[in-house]
Amino acid sequence: MSFVDKFVAEILALQVALYHSRSRLEARTDSEALHDLRIAVRRIRSLLRPMRSMIEVAALNNAAAEVGRLTTPARDLEVMIQELESRGFPSQAHLRKTRLASNYSKILKSPVLKNLFIQLDEWPSAFRSAELNGGLKQVQPQIKKALKKQIDRLHAAVDDAGFDRHELRILVKRTRYLTEAFPRLSPLSGNAASSLKALQSALGSWHDHYQWCQKTLIESDLRPLEKVWQSSAATALEKAETQLVGLAKLLPKSSGKKAA
User: Fold this and answer.
1) Could you give all domains of the chain from N- to C-terminal order, each with its CATH number?
2) Distance between CA 92 and CA 115 in Å, rounded?
3) Which of 62, 165, 169, 225 could form a disulfide with 203 if both were Cys (CB 3.0 to 4.6 A apart)?
4) DSSP string for 38-57
5) Phi then psi for 54, rounded to 5 degrees?
6) pTM for the whole structure
7) Cα distance between residue 25 and residue 37, in whole Å
């Protein structure tokens, strides 16, 4: 099977996963439906990212990005509810579950989600046409170039002690997801990829607790948790800084183009 055949097959498999996740979300069968839907969307975006400027890819990439933005508030609310329940604040959690149910309905009825499925149906024929016209001959070198560029950006961030940690979290996420999308083309070693995943987890925990601390300023029922969240945020950031040192030792040599 050619690289392009495998690429198309991966997108189609993710389309099936999206249909499954949407059905679970409609039926409210489990609490992971939206999370799984977002993972499928994220993987589609990671696969398309190196080629997102191509006409045959742009519409699908944009549609996936819109679904990502649409579903972020609901996913954040899900994580918040899980946190409140684990901390022993059921009334605060219950209050937000009503809002979450409304968010689910809006997502399922949204033309944004509908458009993603339309674009997924239309995309393969356009992509195959590009292949027949010779437009995909350089696709693998293009992906390798995108990976090197992304890792150079990560190098620059890692080497800069003052680099904003919120931006670093996003950069780490993109680098990890792009590497996972194209593991055979990525210059990252297995150990570096594992270190990247651990760093993302620590930065994600810090970011969540930081955001929850901000919410205590406007949502008074969350204020009893402010101090514990501040402490957890500090601990997670300290862990991330330690892991950042370890990742720096595992990254491949930069190409020299390290503009962040």
Assistant:
1) 1-137 (1.20.120), 139-250 (1.20.1440)
2) 35
3) 169
4) HHHHHHHHHHHGGGTTSHHH
5) -70, 140
6) 0.91
7) 9
Model pLDDT for residues 126-169, shown as the tens digit of each residue:
898 888 888 888 889 999 999 999 999 999 999 898 999 999 99
For residue 153, CA distances in Å to 38, 44, 187 come to 25, 22, 14
C-alpha dihedral sign at 191, 194, 196, 198: negative
C-alpha atoms less than 13 angstroms from C-alpha of 38 in its C-beta half-sphere: 17
Distance between start and end Cα atoms, the chain: 37
Amino acid code (one letter) for 190: G
Both tokens assigned to 93: 């959690």
CB 64 within 8 A of CB 38: no
- The tens digit of pLDDT for each residue in 81-93 reads 999 999 999 999 9
Give the residue among 39, 23, 211, 17 at the shortest CA–CA distance from 104.
Answer: 23
Kind plus residue range of the DSSP H or E element containing 11: helix 3-27
Find tokens 């009503």 and name the residue. Answer: 98
